[in-house]
Amino acid sequence: MHPVSPLEQALHAARALVLADLVAGEVAEADVVSLVEEAVVQRRWWVEQWPEGAEYVAGLVAQDVQDALLERYGRWPLCPVCGSGDPHALDVEPELGPDPHWVCHKAGVKVASVGALSGATGGMSSS
User: Fold this and answer.
1) Are 127 and 121 in contact (CB under 8 A)?
2) Rounded distance between C-alpha atoms, residue 73 and residue 113, angstroms
3) Of 30, 15, 23, whose CA–CA distance to 123 is shortest?
4) How far apart are CA 57 and CA 96, in angstroms?
5) Each residue's pLDDT tens digit, 59-84
6) What distance in Å separates the CA atoms of residue 74 and residue 28, rounded to the nearest whole number?
7) Count of alpha carbons within 13 Å of 61, Cβ hemisphere only?
């Protein structure tokens, strides 16, 4: 058995973090999970070209999935901080950097690390 390369470790971690956030938002349907897989495939090529970028993959996959969801379904993830006004999506920061997290620019706060939205949203509802 071959050890898993750092590239594959980064890609698997990115997939797991974004899927955790999708589950927290109760939007992890099969077609949405396919968007995650598409983003991982695209980022695999990117990080193969620039191996030093492996630590940025989680944030990039999160942004890719967010963009794909916006085109097909609408804004995601919705801000759990702002209780009034128009619903708005969180943004990933830094756009290209390690330790990506979801932020609300309206409130000016870090809401959660990518992969940890369940703690910010109260987890899945018990419906």
Assistant:
1) no
2) 23
3) 23
4) 9
5) 999 999 999 999 888 899 999 999 77
6) 14
7) 38
Residue where the block lists tokens 């990115």: 14
Residue 113 Cα distances to 22, 62, 84, 124, angstroms: 13, 11, 23, 17
What pLDDT digit, counting tens, does each position of 39-58 carry?
999 999 999 999 999 999 99
Task: Determine the Cα–Cα distance for residues 51 and 119; give it in Å rounded to an integer.
Answer: 31
Q: What tokens does 74 get?
A: 């609408």
Sheet holding 91-93, edge to edge: 91-93, 101-104, 109-113
**Strand boundaries in 1-127, DSSP class E:** 91-93, 101-104, 109-113
Cβ count within 10 A of residue 68: 17
Q: Residues 38, 19, 28, 121: is their CA dihedral positive or negative?
A: negative
Residue closest to 12 by CA, chosen among 33, 40, 39: 40
Distance between CA 45 and CA 125 in Å, rounded?
A: 36
φ, ψ of residue 95 to 5 degrees: the values are -65, -35
59 CB-near residues (< 8 Å, 6+ apart): 92, 94, 95, 96, 97, 100, 114
For tokens 């703690």, the residue is 119
